[in-house]
Design a protein that fits this description.
By secondary structure, the protein is of the alpha/beta class. The chain has one domain: 3-Layer(aba) Sandwich (Rossmann fold). Helix content is 30%, strand content 25%. A seven-stranded mixed beta sheet has the order 3-2-1-4-5-7-6, with helices on both faces. Helix 5 crosses helix 6. The longest helix has 13 residues. It is globular.
């Protein structure tokens, strides 16, 4: 679920993966299974995956990328952490996914995909550069393509006090400003974040 907004962020994420010493329980966000909100979206939306490309932004340990590949997408998955990408290749040695170490701000200019998946990546990036991060993600969506974004939602910027910094509704509108159209927005509560007065969001955009 990681990517970089600066050299400092890149070093922070790499330090976590490298310091985990191949122990997945040392990665706070590693569930070792596809995100349940992604699974729900795939089941209810039933997207056409035939000859369709997909990219996972900040792929972490690869479970979401593998799920998309299992469902028929041609998947590219990237993370700013080289250790995370190597870990994905070790976990899934026979994978069809193309795992790449890459910085969100230095991606190939021709990278555009039919489906773009962003889960908990933007919230890990400092608020000060959030618009730039969202713009970079939006550029990955091909014409007529779809973006699914999942994360934590704050009621106001006053709740953005520590990493992961939850997004506000105003920040999500940066996707619209980047040329995407919101087609579905949902929120969910759970015990983990309800105590923090936060909810989880799932939003679908099209280009």
């Amino acid at each position: 679920m990681t990517n970089a907004s600066s050299g400092g962020d890149q070093q922070w994420f790499e330090a976590i993966y490298n310091g985990a010493q191949n122990q997945t329980n040392n990665i706070p966000w590693a569930d070792l299974r596809p995100n349940p909100f992604l699974l729900e979206w795939l089941e209810t939306t039933a997207p056409d995956t035939l000859n369709k490309s997909a990219v996972v932004v900040g792929c972490g340990l690869g479970d979401d990328a593998e799920e998309l590949a299992r469902r028929g997408y041609s998947v590219t998955a990237f993370d700013v952490s080289a250790t995370a990408v190597d870990w994905c290749r070790q976990r899934f040695p026979d994978s069809k996914v193309r795992y790449v170490q890459a910085d969100l701000f230095k991606l190939p200019s021709d990278w555009q995909f039919d489906f773009v998946l962003e889960i908990n990546t933007v919230q890990a990036i400092p608020v000060a550069v959030r618009r730039d991060v969202i713009n970079a993600i939006a550029r990955l969506v091909a014409p007529s393509g779809t973006l699914l974004a999942i994360g934590r939602l704050a009621k106001s910027s006053e709740q953005q006090v520590r990493r992961p910094w939850p997004l506000t509704r105003d920040e999500l509108h940066y996707y619209d400003e980047a040329g995407l159209s919101e087609v579905r927005f949902e929120t969910y509560g759970d015990m983990e974040i309800s105590a923090l007065s936060l909810v989880r969001f799932q939003v679908t955009y099209q280009k």
